[in-house]
Write a structure and sequence with these properties.
single chain, mainly alpha, 7 helices, globular
Length: 205
C-alpha cells in the first residue's frame, strides 16, 4: 500500500466511523474526506521530521522549528507539491539541508552573517506573502489579513531568536527558530519557480 492509498484508507475509516455514529451526514463526505486526508498527511510529515530530528540528536530544536514554521507557512504560502509523497520528500529534503547548513556553517560561528541573511529573508517574505497560485486566489481583505499574520509570526520569531542567541543554554534552539524565516522564504522562491515553469508550459499547449 502506497502513501496515497494509506492516507485514503485511514480517511475513509474515520469517515465511516463518524457516519455510523451519526456525527456527520453522507452529503458531507467529500468535505470531511478532504479534511481528514489533509490532517493525516500533515501528521505524517510532522512524524517524519521529528524522527529525523531525533536521529540527528536535534529533537527539541526540531519541535521548536515546527512550532514556528507551521503557523507562518499556513499563511505565507509558497511551494506546494503535486501529491502527498512529493510533499513529504520535499519537506524532508529541505529540513535535512537546513540541518546540514546550520550545523556546518552557522552554529557557534557566523551568527552575525546568519542574522543578516535572515533579516533579508524577513523583508522578502513580508513583501511576497501571501504567495498564492492563480487557481487559489485570495480577496484583497484576505491578503491583507494573511500578510498581517505573517508579519506578526515573523516578528515574534525574530525577536525570540535575537534574544535567545545571547544565552548559551538556548543558543542552538534560537538558531533553529531563526532558520524558520529562511526556510519560509525558500518555499516562496520554489513556489515562484514552479509557477513560472507552469505558465511557460501552458503557453506551448
Amino acid at each position: 500500500m502506497g502513501e496515497r492509498e494509506m492516507i485514503e484508507f485511514l480517511s475513509q475509516k474515520m469517515m465511516y466511523f463518524l457516519i455510523e455514529n451519526n456525527a456527520i451526514k453522507k452529503e458531507e463526505i467529500e468535505i470531511y474526506n478532504y479534511t481528514f486526508e489533509t490532517v493525516i498527511a500533515f501528521l505524517i510529515n510532522i512524524i517524519f521530521i521529528l524522527l529525523i530530528g531525533w536521529i540527528m540528536n536535534r529533537f527539541i530544536c526540531t519541535i521548536l522549528f515546527l512550532v514556528f514554521y507551521c503557523p507562518i507557512r499556513q499563511f505565507s504560502g509558497g511551494y506546494h507539491a503535486e501529491n502527498y509523497k512529493s510533499c513529504l520528500l520535499t519537506f524532508v529534503a529541505i529540513y535535512i539541508l537546513n540541518y546540514v547548513i546550520l550545523e556546518n556553517f552557522f552554529i557557534n560561528k557566523n551568527s552575525i552573517l546568519f542574522l543578516l541573511i535572515t533579516i533579508i529573508s524577513f523583508i522578502r517574505v513580508y513583501k511576497k506573502s501571501p504567495f498564492e497560485h492563480r487557481e487559489h486566489s485570495l480577496s484583497m481583505n484576505q491578503r491583507k489579513k494573511y500578510k498581517q499574520i505573517v508579519f506578526l509570526g515573523l516578528t515574534l520569531d525574530l525577536i525570540i531568536s535575537i534574544i535567545g542567541i545571547h544565552f548559551k543554554s538556548i543558543y542552538v534552539y534560537s538558531i533553529y527558530i531563526l532558520s524558520v524565516i529562511n526556510i519560509i522564504y525558500l518555499m516562496i522562491i520554489l513556489g515562484s519557480i514552479k509557477q513560472k515553469i507552469t505558465e511557460k508550459s501552458q503557453k506551448f499547449i
